[in-house]
Amino acid sequence: MPKLYFEDFKPGLFGEFGPRLITREEIVAFAAEFDPQPMHLDEDAARETLLHGLAASGWHTCGVMMRMLCDGFLLDSSSMGANAVDEVRWMKPVRPGDTLTLRFTVLETRASRSRPDIGFVTVLIEMINQTGTAVMTLKNALMFGTRTGAKS
Amino acid sequence: MKYFEEYRIGDRTETGAHRFEADEIKSFARRFDPQRFHVDEEEAARTHFGKLCASGWHTAFLWMRAQVEYRRRESDRRRARGEGVAKVGPSPGFRDLKWIKPVYVGDTITFATEIVETRVSNSKPEWGIIRMYNTGTNQDGDLVMSFVSTAFIERRPSR
């Protein structure tokens, strides 16, 4: 049985997950597969860019975020996924050797008007590096099954 | 890449296409998004998706790959013609990402990008900023994904 349902989410800080080490090998492997720009592949080429050195693809940070969310609690929930992401901001480079912590804050919750078995949880997800700096923020609404809907 | 000054609002380019197979849907999901509807056919059948479907992030990451590969082809064509190639800066992010329809096994998604705004950067005058409306469309012509992103593009160097 899933542990977390829509009703269990309340506005405020929900939790922090991680930390997760980001290695050079992982940065390059992700970039080679999904975002093969020189600034994500090669230190010398990256030094010539606005990133001033090798940094992870922002999409890689999104992938790390999603996996940390799943490992943290999402798989033990009535998650139905999401059909949108309102905003992602890539604010600071993620360098080889950085460790990232995921901070999950609930902004608001809203039961579905049409379906009693679904609720929407609007969240702010921050990926924070070892200096306490947010390198990425993400805002969207996640869909969860309701406990009352599950019983009926 | 074209220089910033060469971008026209309304220019739309198809950058590539990808057919989603079951094994890759599951292996991507196991790495990045192991929710049950992305990793197991029987589990997916019990959910609102009805069938195994790809993580939305899988579709988004493949859009990026198609974008980078398109840029490389365009840069190679320009070099072959003796034209300069503009650098692209790191993106500050994206917004209004929508996963409109699920992507199922056997779906072929065609990726595209359309220029919606261009403006010179105030803070970095050698760079311009383009805003793009980016999409993935399936084989039936249905929009499956869209989002808006911005990119820094080098301006044509003065002689």
Overview of the molecule:
The complex is a heterodimer of chains A (152) and B (159). Chain A is α+β, with helices and mostly antiparallel strands. Chain A has a single domain, classed as Hotdog Thioesterase (Thiol Ester Dehydrase, Chain A, Roll). Helices cover 24% and strands 35% of the residues of chain A. Chain A contains four helices and five strands. Chain A has a five-stranded antiparallel beta sheet with strand order 1-3-4-5-2. The radius of gyration of chain A is 17 Å and the shape is elongated. The mean pLDDT of chain A is 95. Chain B is of the alpha+beta class. Chain B has one domain: Thiol Ester Dehydrase, Chain A. Chain B is 28% helix and 32% strand. Chains A and B meet through helix 3 and strand 2 of A and helix 4 and strand 2 of B.
Task: Describe the secondary-structure layout.
The complex is a heterodimer of chains A (152) and B (159).
Chain A: E1 12-21, H1 24-34, H2 43-47, H3 58-72, E2 84-90, E3 99-111, E4 118-128, E5 134-145, H4 147-151
Chain B: E1 12-19, H1 22-32, H2 36-39, H3 41-45, H4 56-80, E2 93-99, E3 108-120, E4 127-137, E5 143-154
Antiparallel strand pairs in B: 1-3, 2-5, 3-4, 4-5
Q: How many domains of chain A, as an integer?
A: 1
Helix and strand element order of chain A: EHHHEEEEH
- Specify the helix fraction band of chain A: 10-25%
Largest sheet of chain B: 5 strands, antiparallel
Taken in chain order, the helices and strands of chain B follow as EHHHHEEEE
CATH C-level name of chain B: Alpha Beta
Which architecture of chain A would the CATH scheme give at its second level? Roll
Structural class by SSE content of chain A: alpha+beta
User: Quick check: average pLDDT of chain B?
Assistant: 96
CATH structural fold name of chain B: Thiol Ester Dehydrase, Chain A
State the helical fraction of chain B.
25-40%
First CA to last CA of chain A: what distance? 14 Å
Strand numbers in spatial order across the main sheet of chain B? 1-3-4-5-2
Output the number of helix runs of chain B.
Answer: 4
- Distinct helical segment count of chain A: 4
The CATH superfamily of chain A is identified as Hotdog Thioesterase
Q: Which CATH C-level class of chain A is it? A: Alpha Beta
Q: CATH homologous superfamily of chain B, by name?
A: Hotdog Thioesterase
